[in-house]
Amino acid sequence: MDALLLRSLTPGVIGVLVRRGADFAAAEDAVQDALVEAVRVWPDDPPRDPKGWLITVAWRRFVDAARAETARRRREDRAETEPAPGPAPSVDDTLQLYFLCAHPSLTPSSAVALTLRAVGGLTTRQIARAYLVPEATVAQRISRAKRTVSAVRLDRPGDVATVLRVLYLVFNEGYSGDVDLSAEAIRLTRQLAAAIDHPEVAGLLALMLLHHARRASRTAADGSLVPLAEQDRGRWETGMIAEGVGILQAALARDRLGEFQAQAAIAALHCDAPSAEETDWAQIVEWYDELAGLTDSPVVRLNRAVAVGEADGPRAGLNELASLSEELPRHAAVSAYLHERDGDRATAARLYAEAAHRAPTLAERDHLTRQAARLNAVDADRAEDPRGDI
Amino acid sequence: MAKYLLLKHYRGAPAPVNDVPMDRWTPEEISAHMRYMQDFADRLEKSGEFVDGQALAPEGAWVRYDGEGRPPVTDGPFPETKDLIAGWMIIDVDGYDRAVELAGELSAAPGAGGKPIHEWLEVRPFLTAPPAVTE
């Protein structure tokens, strides 16, 4: 059974139920039940029309639930018969669902959970495993989110930027459980790009593809991080890179630059370099300037300092860095890198150790600790070797 | 979304404002304290922010490897150990500010005289997996 096909049908089926008069929360529950049923029944008895099957089963679940509810409340007769099918589900249903699930009244974690379930068709358990939290916690998150958006009407257009932020969060979570969240984010962004013509949606999709294409080369077999300059570029997925570059070029041609397009442009320049030495750092610096004009994020300026260090030498990079707060995440790591390139190994070793202490992720901490250890070991050897050359 | 550990100490934390040891509370005050902790965990579960909560016995042993073919060495408890963890709560929240807000609520658990203990709790972020976007 094709689980992805099944999940890709989810938003459309919810849309049909909502158009037939179900409220969103009940429709979403009914479709989840239908998905579970499909996983159970389809392997032995595959339907000829998967979507029609899902609609029928989900509608029956909705009616049963509504009846139970009705019976509970003075046995009114309601939703007794199946109404005539509404107009064919359109991409518009899917689009409205994205807007609803990323509604600004939701906290980021609620929007993520609701999007993954209602748009992505993941089960509560899968989401819980992916985020390493108890299933009950995710179930609560989703039901609260549904309550929050229950007053929101599905027929008002939303802000695509909020949807993109949610998809970006999902992508960045990567791969930790039995669900590949990066791949799922790409699928959902692709689906969104098919439903709405917007250069930033294309920009985000390109950005995701250009990072995803290099994922395998980012970690060694033992799980340790491999810095960009040391990655085996032969392992980069050229097909995915070509697709990302094509999408990005079409978006840029429309001359409505946004954050995701600028970030994708930087990723594209990295992907385009046959070796680390051949990277077009001057152009990357220009893109960071564009990006800095679009957001006032200090993280962008930190990354720009790295690019300046590559384009104009470590001193120039350190000068850039001097204007930035040392409190910024990864400031010490960048400073360590630039100092080493500048030949100041003792400072670099000290800063790498400091950066390791403040690293937000386990893999980075281990990587930075190794960098500090490498420099300290070399310096210890030098001290023992009177010639001083290694 | 980020996970934080709210760490409660038997010993080793700075002195709380309402610094009366639990064995000097009235039984009702102890019950009120326990109820507050349970209600707090229930609230977190309903808000979709609960991951785990555990309490630890104050006494344990130190264990270490003692070489090939030999049983591990156990020792302790060592009364001189400064830091003694009493338990923890793990939360999954939207950011650091929310973690601090929740730790503040937990620290308001009632103690002697039914007044908040103002206990110091340690808030520690989890190290996560690296993000997918790196440049």
Question: How does this model look, in words?
Answer:
The complex is a heterodimer of chains A (390) and B (135). With 390 residues, chain A is mainly α. Among the domains of chain A are: 4-72; 90-196, no CATH class. Chain A has 20 helices and no strands. The longest helix of chain A has 23 residues, at 50-72. Chain A starts with a helix and ends in a 6-residue tail after the last helix. The model of chain A is unreliable at 78-82 (pLDDT under 50). With 135 residues, chain B is of the alpha+beta class. Chain B has a single domain (2-58, 79-125), classed as Dimeric alpha+beta barrel (Alpha-Beta Plaits), CATH 3.30.70.1060. Helices cover 24% and strands 27% of the residues of chain B. Chain B has helices at 27-46, 96-107; strands at residues 2-11, 50-55, 62-64, 73-75, 84-93, 122-125. In chain B, the strands form two sheets. In chain B, strands 2-5-1-6 form a four-stranded antiparallel β-sheet, covered by helices on one side. Chain B has a two-stranded antiparallel sheet with strand order 3-4. The radius of gyration of chain B is 18 Å and the shape is flat. Chain A binds chain B through residues 107-110, 112-113, 131-134, 136-138, 140-142, 144, 168-169, 171-176, 182, 207-208, 211-212, 215, 218, 225, 228, 263, 266-267, 270, 303, 359-365, and chain B through 1, 3, 45-52, 92-94, 125, 127-135.
In short:
The complex is a heterodimer of chains A (390) and B (135). Chain A is mostly helical and 390 residues long.
User: Which CATH architecture of chain B would you pick?
Assistant: 2-Layer Sandwich
**Largest β-sheet summary of chain A:** none
Q: What integer value in Å does the Rg of chain B equal? A: 18 Å
Which superfamily, in CATH terms, is the homologous superfamily of chain B?
Answer: Dimeric alpha+beta barrel
| CA distance, first residue to last residue of chain B | 21 Å
By DSSP (H or I, 4+ residues per run), the number of helices of chain B equals 2
Can you identify the CATH class of chain B?
Answer: Alpha Beta
For the residues shown, what is the average pLDDT of chain A?
Answer: 90
Find the count of extended strands of chain B (DSSP E, 2+ residues).
6
Largest sheet of chain B: 4 strands, antiparallel
| Apparent shape of chain B | flat
Shape of chain A: elongated
- Largest interface: chains, residues each: A-B, 46 and 23 residues
The quaternary organization reads as: heterodimer
Number of helices of chain A: 20
Instruction: Return the domain count of chain B.
Output: 1
**In whole angstroms, how far apart are the ends of chain A?**
59 Å
Number of strands of chain A: 0
Q: What is the string of SSEs of chain B from the N terminus onward?
A: EHEEEEHE
Region (Disordered) (chain A): 70-90
Domain DUF6596 (chain A): 161-251
GO molecular function (chain A): sigma factor activity
Biased composition (Basic and acidic residues) (chain A): 70-81
